[in-house]
Structure formats: C-alpha cells, structure tokens
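look at this stuff:

>
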Amino acid sequence: MRFMQLSTLFRPQSIAIIGASTKEGSVGWSLAKNITEHFSGASYPINPKATELFGKPCFPSVLAIEGPVDLAVIAVPAAIVPAVLRECGEKQIPTAAIISSGFKETGPEGKALEEEVLRIASEFSITLLGPNCLGFLAPHDHLNASFAKSLPEAGPIAFFSQSGALLTALLDISGERLSYRICVSTGNKAMLQENDLLRFFAADAATKTIGFYSEDLSDAKGLIDTGRAILRRAEPKPIVALRSGKTAAGTAASSSHTGALAGSDAAYEALFRQAGIVRVEGLEELAATLETFSKNPLPEGGRVAILTNAGGLGVMATDACVGQGLELAPLSPDTIATLQSFLPVSANSHNPIDVLGDARADRYERSLDTVFSDPNVDILLVIITPQAMTEAEKTAEAIASARDRFPDKPIVVSLSGGRSFETAQIFFEKHQITALHSPEAAAQALGHL
C-alpha cells in the first residue's frame, strides 16, 4: 500500500457513514455519534429512512453527496456491502473501513462474499480496512471512526489488532498510562495486512513504538524483511506483538472469530525472532511493554542496576532480571565509595543497592544520581515499598528529576504496593515514567527493552 493511500484512510478530510442509524446504542448509531461529535472535517450520515442525525443532514446514498469524500465507514448487513462499496467506487471514494461482519469468519458463503468485496475494491482502487472490524481511532485528529466508547490520549504508540474487542480492552486497561498515535482494528484483513501497516507506521515520524495483536500472519518473508528494516533505521522503532492461537483449541477459536488460518506456534515464534519483533504473552504484559518502550530510550546494553528500600524485593528483582537475560551491572569502585559515604552502615552499596526501609526521598535522590552517573549502568530499576517513613510522592518527584538529568538511560519503577501509591502512580503517569506493580513485571519489561 502506498503511503498516501493510508494517509487518506487514517487522516481523512471528509467521511461518509454508510449505515448511520437512529437506533440509540446500535453500531450504526455509535459510529455516527463518535464521528460527528469531534471530527473537524465534513461528515455525511447515509440513511435513506432519516432526514437528520446528530445535527447533520442524512443522505440516501453516497452518490447524493455533492462534494468529495475521502473515507467511507460502512456498517450495513454483509449482503449489501458489495452494492454500497460499488457506489463508493462510482463516487471515487479512495478508502473504506468495513465494520460489518458476516464474511469469511462465517464459512464458505461468507468467504465468497468477502472475495467479491475485495474484487470491487480492487476494481475501483479502494484501500480497504476490514471487514468485520471495529474501525480505527486517531486521537491527534480527534477522530473516533469506530464504535469504541472514547478516544485515548494522543501520543507516540501505533497499535493495530485483529480483534476489535482486544483493542478496546487494552485501551481500558492502560487508561492514561499509554497514549496513542493511532489504534486500528484490522478484522478479517481482506486487503490491509500487518506488513502494510508496519511499513506505514515506520514511515510516520510521530510514531515511536508499534504494537499489534494477530491471530494469523501471511507473507513471513516480507514481515521479516520489514521488521529488520525498521530496526536498522537511524532511529529504530520497537515492534511488540501479541499472538494468540498457541494451542489447537485456541487456533480453532481464532478460525471461527476472524477466519484465521491455523499455523505452528513454533513457526510464529521463529518468525518474530528473525524479524526482531518482541513477543508478549498477555494483555498486562503487552500494556507494560508498550509503556516501557514508549517512555524510554533504547539502552546501550543490558546491564541493570537495582535500587530498592526492601532487601527481599531486591533479591527477587535480581532473579527476575537475570531470568530475562539482563546482567547485574558491576558498579564502579567510585560509585560504591560514593554510596558508602552517605548511606547508613547497614545499607548495601553493591548491586542490588538497598537504601533500607527508612529511606526518605533525599536518600533515593542522592543514590539515583550516583548510580545513573556510573558508566557501567545501562538501565535502572527502582523499587519502592510502603514503609512508615516512605515519602511516596516526594520520592516520585526525585525519580522524575533524576530521569530528566539523565535522559539517555531507561528507568522503570516498581511501586510494590497498592493504595499507598495511588498519588505517586498518577504522578508517574503525568511525567511519562513507567511504574509497574512488581519487580518481576518491571524486569520483564526491561528485558524486552
């Protein structure tokens, strides 16, 4: 797919909503509401049985619209999708997102219908997203061309998903922790495949991290070539993938979901490894990994320093980091001597560095500056547990200040507690610092980084 075609799809100036409905709560109603509510361009609800919807005049078909249309969002019964898509071709609409289900995921008849839709799209040179998809969300342009509840925060992550519901689950789980350039539901992928989107987001300067969920992949060689090319760039963009269907039962479920084809999980594992794609195993790990990549620079190496106010969690973090392929950073003699000069005698000035349970924000701050300055340290993992003396908010401020002074080294925080850290968690989110809830989760995210 050419860059300009996908630019028109994801950044349209005008949208026709085919299947816009007056029935509150329906897909067609939600689509029309989401698009017309904030989109600054022209929007045209298409409904031959209505005259007005959300303050916009309704049209009987796209052929009745006088001006040009960049994008058609289609949510009509599957059987009439070919007819309305042909009208889009006659109207010279260059892109379409087919929300409707009832295609190859339903069996041979649905597959034949999907092939007909693809033929029409090819005949009129229409770039096609879907069918059987949620649509897409472009927060930077205030565009919710989907039936998701709301737009996420605008930011540097591009994410696409074969499952629309997984996409909305990720948005809900991640809350304000993650911010997005664009979120795309690919559905059955009749035309647009992973490779098309990877290449597009690789060329998009505002995208810093790419993530996707898939149940089946085609063009393995192309995906490997694309992944390697993205990582060879002067500013490489990390790619994070979640793929389901590891078991025979999971594969059967994905086939009934989007018509996905079965494939060996070992082959997918090898594919991701060869392409330089980071594979994750679940939604929480996906969110944590995307957050870590989007909020940190890539490290020079895998030497990690652990700074903690709890010796036991420092040991746990050490085991977890080594298990993730990281190396415990050998602190320089100067670093150790500096730490010993201000830490209590019972503290541990070697890695993992235990600043003890009575550590207040100032002790964390001096330790952070000292460890960040060590040339042997590539990555920093900071653990905070809730003791009576712990100054959670002030310690969070000290961590943010140290991060700003040493912006070239990644840092992930383990806020190993619950209600005690609610304010600190909000502070970290606001200041774009990854804060997870366990040393193991932090080590896993840093291992991926």
Summary: The longest helix spans residues 108-123.
